[in-house]
Amino acid sequence: MKKTTGEILDCVEIVEKNNRIVKNYGIWLRYNSRSGTHNMYREFRDVSLTAAVSQLYDEMAGRHRARPRSIQIIRTATVGAKDLKRVNGMQLAQAKVKF
Prior knowledge:
Elements: E1 23-32, E2 37-46, H1 49-64, E3 71-79, H2 87-92
Antiparallel strand pairs: 1-2, 1-3
């Protein structure tokens, strides 16, 4: 579908039921860079999905110089501790983490 034929029907912020529990979120995205289009999977730990998406935009701007208008979020999901793929998330998902 072309961008010109698409139509935004609704725009609603997602509110979490319990925002006191930290969860792992996986975000699949596509972004345009100077060299082409890239697909990517990122994992974030946060209390809400909207905060995890905000982290995504900040990190993509810092690491890849990607502007928010060039990022398309394809899918989001809550990821269990055993299903994490990235090492940074695995370190904090252990049961006996002490600070």
